[in-house]
Amino acid sequence: MADGEGDPGVFTATALPGDPRLLPTVTSAFLGTRVFRDILHAAGVYSGAAGDTHRADVPSPLGLRMAAPGAHSPAESFTLNTWTGTFSHTIQSPGYTATHQLYAHHSLVHLMAFSVTIRRLDGSTHPVTIQLQSLFVPQSQDLDLRPGPDFQGAHYIYGQTLVPEVEGGPRPTVHMLWTPIPQSLTLGGEERERCWEFLTAVAGSEEEAKRSYSAGLSLAAAGSLHRSHVRAWAALRRGCSVELDGPLALRQALQGCLYYLLSAIPPRDSPGVLFHGISPGGLSNGSRGEDYWGHVFWDQDTWMFPNILLLYPEAARAILQYRIRTLEGARRNAREQGYEGAKFPWESAATGREVCPEEIYGTQEIHVTGDVLMAFEQYYCTTQDQKLFQEDGGWELVEAVAQYWCSRMVWSEEEQLYHIRGVMPPDEYHSQVDNSAYTNAVAQRSLTFATDMARDLLLPVPEEWEDRARKIKVPFDEERKYHPEYDGYSPGEPVKQADVVLLGFPLMHPMSAEVRRNDLEMYEPVTDPAGPAMTWSMFAVGWLELKELQRAWSQLEKCFSNIMEPFKVWVENSDGSGAVNFLTGMGGFLQVILFGFTGFRITGSSLLFDPAFPDDITKLKISSVSYLGNKLEVTITREEMRMEVTETSWDLPPSPLEAVLESGQRFPLWEGMA
């Protein structure tokens, strides 16, 4: 890869990818679709029981495509602008241009919209007609839809999902209003330019759908509908700005990842909108049979969450509230398997009950419960937000996870240690193993955090939490000085994905630099090169930790085979299989930049930093790192690292910060001071 000119946040092509799965997505916290697709999804709206639960397909009026009648192969271009959160399709003919713009409104999360603008380029006075080709039919295989009366010129349908997730459970209702779409649009002979706007509002209640549609109409009448979306989206992008000086492909990948991941989170000032978690393929995907059917995995808590927390802790809190709302389902999962506390599902939808179609994962891949709690720990260390734990249900979740781990362990008389047996580690090539290093380490971390949290909240600490945290087995080979993946692992056995390397980061399990290196050396050559995209990111972070910059870069470069042109859509596996719009891989990639290049590590007492850049990168600027109620602008070059407190205005009173160097020198950080 070489440096190049061009805007790293604008992706333009003259033809669309042959595989429609690789088309870009336009998404808000509540609605999502893929461009030119005739269905959309609404957050939290699933249909189907248990393992058949999937995102309900809502018919979408937004999936139309422009065509120029009679024109012989007019010039076309397709652009995803990540700065404005807008996709556009332009037809260029000798006498006119026609532009179709599509977006999910960032602040009006129940509203999606598109416009068609025809602009005359010459002095002619003949009419110009553009055809609108649409596959839209107001029916769904997942919803019992019926028509209602028109509202302010919009058509109206509503209905419930057909099958609840759990027997006797709720069947979500969908209400949709949309502007009727003609088969063609014509610019009159006397007109130079005209713009037509079309709105679609989708909500869980008739009142919310109508409110959103009316708000959109008012903005459209004032000529500011798209501008209001761009303003809200641009404010988010500014607040989460990350810029690199380095190869163009790297900068494009960075801005693409930020676009797709930030599209999935709630806007600021939306306390009334429930958040329903982030699935590996995002809200735009997840129909039956695709992208894990829209279920939420550890991908959210381990791979996406740390980036969101660092840049936008309010959205991180919303993700944790999704887990709190599904706690009762997690308790039921534990009871059904004969354990205490709460066992979070391997695959989660609306209720927290296990919805994985294959029993083995739901039964054995239990590390997800510790992954959920680690997100709570990272959030608490970063914000000191005790309200989440004291008033909003967080402590009940922490306690339930600790109870689960205690009930899941058994005492080994032989080793005088606690074991966790019969699990599947993150490496899914192995199952029914004992003492997965990652699973046991994350369980230990859960119990340690629960103990610390109880003390902070002045609550009694059960003795068994400390005892089991101290005495759980985390396999370690004293002779080779590395962590075997599980009891009986033989060096050289193939591994599906990042597993033991996660002990170093994000778990920060205590180990020497020698052991960290040995773990990387042991598992890098045996990890499946066709494995999921996030894997190489964690090897890159490990090598950056050890200041092996070229080795880190070679791992990061592997990610690029998962980024599909022209719209930088990630695929789970480099052969194109698995989930598309793979936010998990993007989350891992962003962690290399936000935690690998900076060396940021979130601990109970500080935010550590230890920058390291590969040779091709000369500067990194993160505009808004959130820490203890402060916003920090961080700029790192090869010569220096600058930190400036730019804001101290979060809900919590900010804590005064100081930078402490290894030499012991201390530098107070006050607002406006670098």
Automatic annotation (TrEMBL):
Gene Ontology terms, cellular component aspect? cytosol
Q: Sorted alphabetically, which Gene3D superfamilies does this protein's record hold?
A: 1.50.10.10, Maltose phosphorylase, domain 3
Q: What is its EC number?
A: 3.2.1.107
Catalyses:
(5R)-5-O-[alpha-D-glucosyl-(1->2)-beta-D-galactosyl]-5-hydroxy-L-lysyl-[collagen] + H2O = (5R)-5-O-(beta-D-galactosyl)-5-hydroxy-L-lysyl-[collagen] + D-glucose
Ranges where the Glycoside hydrolase family 65 central catalytic domain occurs = 285-490
The entry lists its GO molecular-function terms as:
protein-glucosylgalactosylhydroxylysine glucosidase activity
Enzyme class comes to: hydrolase
Q: Which UniProt keywords apply?
A: Glycosidase, Hydrolase
One GO-annotated biological process of the protein? carbohydrate metabolic process
Occurrences of domain Glycoside hydrolase family 65 C-terminal (ranges):
601-647
What is the role of the protein in this entry? Catalyzes the hydrolysis of glucose from the disaccharide unit linked to hydroxylysine residues of collagen and collagen-like proteins.
Q: Which family does it belong to?
A: Belongs to the glycosyl hydrolase 65 family.
Q: What is this protein called?
A: Protein-glucosylgalactosylhydroxylysine glucosidase
